[in-house]
Amino acid sequence: MTYVVTESCIKCKLTDCVEVCPVDCFHEGPNFLVIDPEECIDCSLCEPECPVNAIYAEDDLPKDQENFLQLNTELSQHWPVITEMKSPPDDSDDWLEVKDKLQYLDRALP
Prior knowledge:
Blueprint: E1 3-5, H1 16-20, E2 26-28, E3 33-35, E4 55-57, H2 67-76, H3 92-95
């Protein structure tokens, strides 16, 4: 099993979760983080650290977020690993309560 970053992270990209990951399984895109399911050891340390509740255990994914397992798998193969906490985007607070953000996901290399 793996943990999965979901839609709430898009445009917020808060990196509190990265700091606690013992295996460096987080990857950074322009406006989103993903977890590499091959690297994740299911330690659960990242889930409570996420300020926007964007991280779920694979088995606990809400139905409307199940597509994010595939997105995490796909994008982790292209985006670089992130191992340290960074400052969030300047407008991240504006996106904290926004729903249906998939349309804003930037898949480009950062």
